[in-house]
Amino acid sequence: MQYMILSVFFPVLAGVYLLIKKERGNRKYLLVSTGAFLVITAILVVLALCLGREGMFTLFSLTERLPILFKIDEISVVFSVLAVLIFLCAGFFSFEYMKQEKWEKKYYGFYLIILGVLLALCFAGNLITFYLFFELLTLSSFPLVLHERSKEAVMSGLKYLFYSLCGAYMALFGLYFVERYGNTLTFSAGGVISDQAVSNHMGVLLLVAFLMIMGFSVKAGMFPMHAWLPSAHPVAPAPASAVLSAVIVKAGVLAIVRVVYFVFGASFLRGSWVQTVWLTLSLFTVFMGSLLAYREPVLKKRLAYSTVSQISYILFGLAVMEREAFTGSMLHVLAHGLIKAALFLCAGAIIFKTGKTRVEELRGIGKEMPVLMICYTFVSLGLIGIPPTGGFISKWYLAKGALTSAIPVFYWLGPVILLVSALLTAGYLLPVTIQGFFPGEDYDYGALQKKEPSFFMIFPVLILTILSVVIGLLPEGVIGYLSQIIEKIV
Amino acid sequence: MIMLVILLPILTGILIPLIPFKKRKHMEIFLESLVIVNSLFVWYLMFHHTESIFTLANFTGNLSISFKMDGMSMIFGGLVSALWPLATLYAFEYMTKEEHEKVFFLFYTMTYGVALGISMAANLLTMYFFYELLTLVTVPLVMHTLTREAILASRKYLYYSLGGAAFAFIGLIFVIIYGNTTNFVYGGVLDLEKIGGRTNVLLLVYVIAFMGFGVKAAVCPFNSWLPAAGVAPTPVTALLHAVAVVKSGAFAIIRLTYYSFGTEFLKGTWAQNVVMAVVMFTIVYGCSRALKETHFKRRLAYSTVSNLSYILFGVTIMTPAGLVGAFSHLVFHALMKIASFFCAGAVMYQTDRQYVHELDGMGYKMPCVFGIFTLSSLALMGVPGLPGFISKWNLALAAVESGNSLAYWGIACLLLSALLTAIYMLTVVVRAFFPDKEFDRSLLDGIKDPGWKMLVPLFLFSIAIVAFGLHSVNLVKFFDSVAMGMK
């Protein structure tokens, strides 16, 4: 129990300490302390997950009916483990990458705060706690977006901020009604809306559920509120893009899991117009994201569009509201998290070493940095969904779940669009590999230099790659672990 | 005792130009100690008040000037008396750059008494009397700098306020004629038998009186005096035009709605819908104007316009829960807005910068001021754990519970306004802390945080903001009992 709170507060306080500490220009000290803070946080999280699983913990109460409450369940475990893993890897990567950037102290300060807030989101036990940390997540993560302070970065930072706040307020609108018509605000598997309210206020409640889903999915970049994502993620420094794209968007996914399965309940929404609209929007986003990524020449932007598309795979799986689809979504949360982090780190390493940002400039890159590009290729295959990688398993479950569901039209349309999008994914990721390793006859081999990035950069990418493959080879553990909770909520 | 707390500041004010102080410091000590003493009296009264009505003068019939301390007086009086000593302290430092200090403090201190008079008035006539007085003593404060702009602004302020009061007067007359008494009684005083078939006339009168008092509360379309009055020295804009004056408008409307006409008479009528719609429009209008405004203080003034209508939105829900929401925002908004105004004032005092686009990078040079400004911005936009969230929560829950479909739209307005608030406040914060890459920091050389007289009030406000944000249970319980008519 105490570890739960510590793992939230420790990184936040450490981050605040870094922010207010006087700048001394001693880079080594900064790196060592940041690294130590990250590792300690990871240890605290492991302790919390192993030892502090029982019961709820109320920190204090905002008003009599609004306790700030923490609780760990299977969903929290999945999301928090992912968050810690990726923050460790990207943090390690930053030690090298951020050499070239200014305001490093600020960067690490906010980086740690975000980790703490994310963990609080994972452990949040009721809607109000969740909402509190959801807002804090937005507020603490926008400084990373505008870190470089160019005009473009500042504008995208503000865009990110205001889109997210807009979504949060839409969700808040729903929160008031849930407070009124729900038995409790505490997350409980299967929903909290009272039966009486369901029969008397069906229309309002459906509208409210829709608003909450739309509001939270702003963070997850679902159409029509996706526009901030492709402009905000790429302008941040690469390791920050990695955590933004791999973990922070998942906060939106987590929010929707909580709202749909732990507040309203799948049985309430199944078959309603909300589900239909949601399915339509998520499928549209899957397709649109891939298509835009396919047309995008700048690598980091391309990856950001890819995130738009991939997160909507997850949302689609959630919207189907069937067991296997839900399993697929959870697997894709893990797989996409690891893969997208690795991809952004690769893009970052390329920028760091060569300064090249556009895809067509990357001819022969595989000759220059073979290890990095092999990692890139492996995770790309994973994202496309080629067996036996993580992406394959998750998409398999997603498609299977959709096919076995009884939703008219979508039961076949969903898998079809997923497949088309997978094809597009191959189309936008693999050209980098192909041109990188096979630059063609006219390539000037004489000018070739070995530019393999240092250990600090390669190692995190390697770890992420291995994990993403392992998850595809041994998914039974995760599936078995999740099946208990899934049975309760779907 | 009630008379003492009202008259003491007024007399103190009058004495200031008469006493030949040797040093400025003597005047400061004299004034500050008297204001603090008066505040202590008010707080003493709050805990040891009696239910009885104190009548000063009796005119014909049931018209009298009389005072009483009830729950609502405690809320408004307590708020004003808590803020005044701090604002006075702030003013000492701020006013060193302005002329005619004595005249300023004369009226500034008198206003304290008048505001307390409004809060403790026991009937409509007394409240009306002090309400007019409030206009008269604050006009010189707006005019203070004597620039052309200030004179125009004060004239505008005077005409708007007097005009509003005239409309409110119509309400007063009708309540006298159709009520059992002019005293404030929770639940209203109208005599339904006397009214007979003239319900619609009375509803019309209510709307007129609402708009009349609404002038001070800057209800659209009568809000333009408030941003214009921002030319006054910052202690005036912060304390009077974010708290004392404008909230006395809201206060008067609460008295009118809950204690004179009565919610039972008004609820569910077209009059309720009309005022609610006006208020909802003002909420959005104020925010959008704030967004467009580039003058720092005027932006905050427009934000006040919108936030005052949050309070009035709670009032127009016309349920006890709505009133609780109104009270919470009345108190919390006062804290948040006075803090942000004082920050703006500190910037003006230290650097003479008035426009938002001049604030680039200032967060590094004035970390305390902009830290507190950030806090108050977050509170205003309603981040949970800060008071703005609590009051919005109370307002929205009241709206949901009332089942009134117009009130549902009101929640949407509140949230839209929260988003706009985030935009117009956070753009300032981002400018201050995250200046452009090419920004030349040497432009800011020599700028630093202001002296302790300015910082102490700011720190106290920020402590209060955090404290109320985390723990408001007892306060809201008290509001509850007032709103149920138990105090």
Explain this structure to me?
The complex is a heterodimer of chains A (490) and B (487). Chain A is mainly alpha-helical and 490 residues long. Chain A contains 20 helices and 2 strands. In chain A, a hairpin with a 5-residue loop joins β1 and β2 (67-71). In chain A, α14 runs antiparallel to α16 (370-384). The longest helix of chain A is centred in the C-terminal third of the chain and has 32 residues, at 323-354. The model of chain A has no long low-confidence stretch (mean pLDDT 88). Chain B has 487 residues and is mostly helical. Chain B has helices at residues 2-18, 24-47, 71-94, 101-120, 124-142, 148-178, 192-195, 199-214, 225-228, 234-261, 263-266, 270-292, 296-317, 320-351, 362-365, 367-381, 387-402, 405-433, 452-470, 473-483, and strands spanning 54-58, 64-67. In chain B, α4 (101-120) packs antiparallel against α5 (124-142), α14 runs antiparallel to α17 (387-402) and α14 (320-351) crosses α20. The radius of gyration of chain B is 22 Å and the shape is globular. Chains A and B meet through α5 and α6 of A and α17 and α18 of B.
